[in-house]
Specification:
The chain has four helices and two strands; from the N terminus they run αααββα. The chain is mainly alpha-helical. It has a single domain, classed as Orthogonal Bundle (Arc Repressor Mutant, subunit A), CATH 1.10.10. Keywords: DNA-binding, Transcription, Transcription regulation.
Length: about 120
């Protein structure tokens, strides 16, 4: 079971999680998303909340609704998402992270990019 927080509406948290999965290529462009029912069961949330999350991804140009067939990942969705995530990181997260590294006295030589 997934644990939700109070920082954003649940539908937005789900949309963010599904977008992260799309960024990882799951599902691939052109492939169907799991059904509303399947997602509601997986995340133990109301199907209306799932529908709202999927609609947010449609509004963001990542998914398309095919009448009677469900939601599908749009072509180019991963690249659009990657560009958007990179821009957000560089504008919002990187300046804070860089400032924290400076406060801690850490430099690029102290960071190991290979360990995960």
């Amino acid at each position: 079971m997934h644990s939700w927080n109070d920082h954003a509406p649940i539908y937005q948290q789900l949309a963010d999680q599904l977008a992260a999965q799309l960024l990882d290529g799951d599902p691939h462009e052109g492939e169907a998303m799991p059904s509303v029912r399947a997602l509601a069961s997986r995340y133990v949330i109301n199907p209306l909340t799932v529908s709202r999350a999927l609609q947010a991804l449609v509004d963001g140009g990542l998914l398309e609704s095919r009448r009677g067939m469900g939601m599908y990942v749009r072509g180019g969705a991963r690249e659009r998402l990657l560009r958007s995530e990179r821009d957000q990181f560089l504008q919002d997260e990187w300046p804070r992270l860089r400032a924290k590294l400076r406060r801690l006295g850490l430099s690029a030589n102290d960071l190991n990019w290979e360990d995960a």
